[in-house]
Design goal:
By secondary structure, this protein is mainly alpha-helical. It has one domain: dinb family like domain (Four Helix Bundle (Hemerythrin (Met), subunit A), Up-down Bundle), CATH 1.20.120. The chain has 5 helices and 2 strands. It has a two-stranded antiparallel ribbon with strand order 1-2. A hairpin with a 3-residue loop joins strand 1 and strand 2. The N and C termini lie far apart (about 45 Å).
Length: about 160
């Protein structure tokens, strides 16, 4: 079993790597891609709105982890994740790609600072996540960095279809 320090180092490395990959991916998109619809159900988000969602989700999940570490149970059992996500994206203050990328980078730095400050036993604290249910903090953190890759794949698929 890996030590607490090794687990933290792994998480920090993955957050840095995936943060850099997502920033490069979004930073390299042509201007026309930003208004391309990625999803047809729900709020039917564009690429721009997906990045706004990633900014909001990073902040929200970090705050969830902070609450769990403070002894709270996590989200309520009846938490409506889809409604929450749609509301948070609609409240995004900017939709300028450069500003969204800056906000994403700032949110990612805050998450890395949180991880760096974790003490022995905190990665194993259990709290309720809207998708995972009862889960340890370490699993919730892993979901945060994996989350961006899921949306990136969806964007790539839509943009590739447009080229065909």
């Amino acid at each position: 079993m890996k030590s607490h320090a090794e687990r933290k180092e792994y998480l920090i490395r993955r957050f840095r790597e995936t943060g850099a990959q997502l920033s490069a991916f979004f930073g390299d998109l042509p201007p026309a891609a930003w208004d391309r619809r990625v999803y047809s159900e729900g709020a039917a988000w564009t690429v721009r709105q997906v990045l706004a969602h990633l900014v909001q989700a990073e902040d929200s999940m970090r705050r969830l982890v902070e609450r769990i570490l403070a002894g709270e149970s996590g989200v309520p059992e009846d938490f409506d994740l889809d409604a929450y996500n749609e509301y948070k994206v609609s409240q995004q203050k900017t939709d300028a790609p450069v500003a969204l990328l800056d906000e994403f980078a700032a949110a990612r730095r805050k998450t890395i600072v949180l991880i760096a400050g974790l003490v022995e036993g905190e990665l194993d604290k259990i709290g309720r996540h809207p998708v995972l249910g009862e889960a340890p903090v370490e699993m919730i953190l892993k979901l945060i960095y994996r989350h961006g890759n899921v949306h990136r794949r969806d964007i790539v698929k839509v943009l590739e279809e447009e080229v065909r």
